[in-house]
């Protein structure tokens, strides 16, 4: 595979918080990543919350489905899924989707500067199976419906403005979204075994009420060049959006999506891959593929949600596997960062860093019960490299 070099860069202003604190540091990537020693060392014994972490890291429970969030009167939603963090004065907010159908929606938890929970509230209601989504540079949360001809909803993490349906972004089985402020587009994944990868080009950047939905076109290989073509009917009826453009590249179960520094990564759960689009030269390749790890010793399986740290590490959550969140470093090393024990009937969702990058949020969607009513949302604090 070709090597890529990214210059060290910085994102100015509020967009840093909107991308979960992601300011990708420069490094050379040579895909696909292979197992090795992680940046934080081996996992220790499970803590009181059943989480195995490297030395120096600690966990706490933030919320449990069906229970009141500590310090508030708000009852946390079932099946917590995709999430993101936002700056809030000296504190921050963590947003989390609810992947149930019907009802769905999304909630938020507010923290003060010391990390104490000061509030929790609903930001989206009466939608269907809200799985993942993505943050925008203008500090809204795009909550995506993972149902046939589902919608994207633009919501307010601060709980002030009402959520707005965005049909121009296409009606399909949405999964995740990632904003690209350079090209002024939103990338979108589709959770179908023959799904596509899309981008939405707003008529006006910062306003998602109108624009053009496009689909990625490429060959059948795992690397090569790509182009974009308009989707004739974003409404997806009677012909599904993934079937409208000849030559659109098919991906096996699109999941998480993350953008930083002219690169977008997304995962496909059907074949346990992390894909990478190099946007400066319009090429794509594999950042990770469990079938390319020798000896069947792949540390990362069941690839799902993904986010990035300010250092440039990717954090990929597992749906199944060993219930781990694995890190893929800029040096193309993949290693477990944490493991949740005693919850093999669940999946890990919603990884996101606080704006300062020293706190990490995620959920176990079904917790110890294996039921959507048993979800648990966690925070991990420690010496994350920045």
Task: Describe the fold and architecture.
Strand 7 and strand 8 form a beta hairpin. This protein has one helix at 15-18; strands at residues 4-5, 28-29, 34-35, 51-52, 58-64, 80-88, 91-98, 106-111, 117-124, 130-135, 141-145, 152-155, 164-165, 174-180, 185-190, 197-204, 207-217, 224-225, 227-230, 254-260, 263-268, 273-278, 283-289, 303-308, 314-318, 324-328, 333-340, 348-353, 359-364, 376-381. The chain starts with a strand and ends in a 5-residue tail after the last strand. Helix content is 1%, strand content 44%. The radius of gyration is 19 Å and the shape is globular. The protein is built from one helix and 30 strands. 53% of the residues are buried. The protein is mainly β. Strands 3, 4, 24, 25, 26 and 27 form a six-stranded mixed beta sheet that branches. The protein has a five-stranded antiparallel beta sheet with strand order 14-15-16-17-19, with no helix packed on it. Strands 18-23-22-21-20 form a five-stranded antiparallel beta sheet, with no helix packed on it. The protein has a single domain (4-381), classed as Neuraminidase (6 Propeller), CATH 2.120.10.
